[in-house]
Amino acid sequence: xxxxxxxxxxxxxxxxxxxxxxxxxxxxxxxxxxxxxxxxxxxxxxxxxxxxxxxxxxxxxxxxxxxxxxxxxxxxxxxxxxxxxxxxxxxxxxxxxxxxxxxxxxxxxxxxxxxxxxxxxxxxxxxxxxxxxxxxxxxxxxxxxxxxxxxxxxxxxxxxxxxxxxxxxxxxxxxxxxxxxxxxxxxxxxxxxxxxxxxxxxxxxxxxxxxxxxxxxxxxxxxxxxxxxxxxxxxxxxxxxxxxxxxxxxxxxxxxxxxxxxxxxxxxxxxxxxxxxxxxxxxxxxxxxxxxxxxxxxxxxxxxxxxxxxxxxxxxxxxxxxxxxxxxxxxxxxxxxxxxxxxxxxxxxxxxxxxxxxxxxxxxxxxxxxxxxxxxxxxxxxxxxxxxxxxxxxxxxxxxxxxxxxxxxxxxxxxxxxxxxxxxxxxxxxxxxxxxxxxxxxxxxxxxxxxxxxxxxxx
Amino acid sequence: xxxxxxxxxxxxxxxxxxxxxxxxxxxxxxxxxxxxxxxxxxxxxxxxxxxxxxxxxxxxxxxxxxxxxxxxxxxxxxxxxxxxxxxxxxxxxxxxxxxxxxxxxxxxxxxxxxxxxxxxxxxxxxxxxxxxxxxxxxxxxxxxxxxxxxxxxxxxxxxxxxxxxxxxxxxxxxxxxxxxxxxxxxxxxxxxxxxxxxxxxxxxxxxxxxxxxxxxxxxxxxxxxxxxxxxxxxxxxxxxxxxxxxxxxxxxxxxxxxxxxxxxxxxxxxxxxxxxxxxxxxxxxxxxxxxxxxxxxxxxxxxxxxxxxxxxxxxxxxxxxxxxxxxxxxxxxxxxxxxxxxxxxxxxxxxxxxxxxxxxxxxxxxxxxxxxxxxxxxxxx
Lengths: 459, 381
Fold this sequence. Notes:
The structure holds two protein chains of two kinds. Chain A has helices at about 75-90, 250-255, 310-315, and strands at about 5, 10, 35, 45-50, 60, 65-75, 100-105, 110-125, 140-150, 150-155, 160-170, 180, 200-205, 210-225, 230-235, 240, 260-270, 270-280, 285-290, 300-310, 325-330, 340-360, 370-380, 390-400, 405-410, 410-415, 425-430, 440-450, 450. By secondary structure, chain A is mainly beta.
């Protein structure tokens, strides 16, 4: 069985192993094309920006420029020239869609696709062998010089890899079906340890007009009620109360992990302000203090308290649980008695975190058969069968289940969750004002698009 | 695409130029160059985005783009910058076109003196332009003229400027014809405080002494409630100055000029104040960080290419803000005066400029008096 190699629907390798002189180029068994030796598919060049030796670099990948030497055997010279012209047309965008480079190595079950953004067919001189176009032979040698996408992806018809298949998430950090779901082990794709794009489909239950969502790819989530309860003060400067000592030794070895804290309040007065603090051991020095926030008063709420830097702990050896202590800071805005009643805290070691703000409330009771939220980080069956490659900018929308189509845009803040080996999906849902219910549920589907930097096998 | 995945969310212009929640697009995946500046006495100051585009899209931005708002988020969902689109520059190969809100004026006042030395003014306004962008006033002066001439002058200027002034550039040259590209220039919401004059230019003749903090809040409430609904009226980030000043406002004084005059007085403890419009379009006022120069906000080692907070945590370069004390640890052998904000090792940060491209990030930190510390933190691949 020969490999499958095609560009824009023109097969460049005959499945029988031999190009058919004067054959039909759009079928693998009859194509007159062949790929010559010397084609070296290259991996995308990595652009890594470091912000310090203790920080994982932010990486991006650029497009790849390659040259594919080919030969075409026509029934006569005119036929060979016509096939080259046919190829020249096929490699150019059609109706605004880039041409596809499709490759399926011999005995592989995976068809991979890359998008070609710039290409040309260039007849070449073959060491004065007499195969140049102007010499009028029926066998012509040429090169396809092209720029392709950084990655190969799966065609949409092969479906994405499912990570979470209709699991029920409950909007709390404890109990059955909590707000976290683990990815399966052994993710497909070359970037499984770095992160591959996902597609999230989230259908909240009937209760709650959810408009705010926190979505994250996490290594771990620590739910704690240590230190929960009413925190009362009249101080406008502020007071602090100890919470739990989180475990984050994993962050010492995994520089890509970051720390984040969320506080769930059961009630607050309108004059209280709260923030997250990190101290070196119980009653130790204040190492980090987050921003003061004003939680909505009189109701239960959940707030993202922000990212906590871990750099100090990546330098100091001998880190153990208890080396760092979480605190809640609280103060009065007006000197009158102010109370924040903490229900629980969640400490995330995460890779990606984003907040989604939906103008339209999302729940299964809206519209005829409910609304759902969809968050895209890769092209997903948009049109023309484009491969599942990363989107330049993620997109999110409210979908009407009856129409099965988008009815509103959703603003994204931050980075949507990627599929990373050993990771989990974290989810939290709030209504306006960050009002939070621990009994709300959602049905969650999460898919990933495996990516390959280079096809397997190059000769 | 930038090397750091920012969300550069663009929203349509709302009624009277107010920011809306009508999401238009996220430029984060398309822009090739992002640059923003933040100042200690302005807040979010300026931002530019540059990216290649199609001819149709460039025309759309030229025709419909002014006044669109932008909120930029970092990869950890923190707000990086916020403002409105004030300049669109499009390059169509050898042709360039641009339009800007800077030259726009939809209320033109001509202040003139009559032959008898009496000072008065004539004004004309374009309601349609005000409905689109909000009120933006231009005041010109003319001496020794009459009412009719002043009115005519106001109308002439208004006709020219009510919808902005388009600029053209044409080059006919041999060689490459170039491509289509856009450069979008944004301004912070603070700059809109300079769009309108108090009481349509008549000023306020009052000698009453009132808290400068109260006056600032009153002015913001006034311009937001009755003129340009741009800023938040949540004043929880305004620290009281403890100072008072007269309420007098001269004629043709913009809200921005009066607010700055009040804030420049400082605090009752003789400290400078820093101010600006930041996240959620909230006005922030606080004593300057230079009042406590030993409280280090940012620090750096000359051997590193990053900024850290006072406790050693890495601060992403796009989150570095002014009104801060910045210290270079390697220079600490020169002992600073404990009360001096500036020394060999530490400096007050007056302005920051952050530039992000596909290949890297750079941060420029400026000290007081326009001195550029040239603190370029970058790593190119």
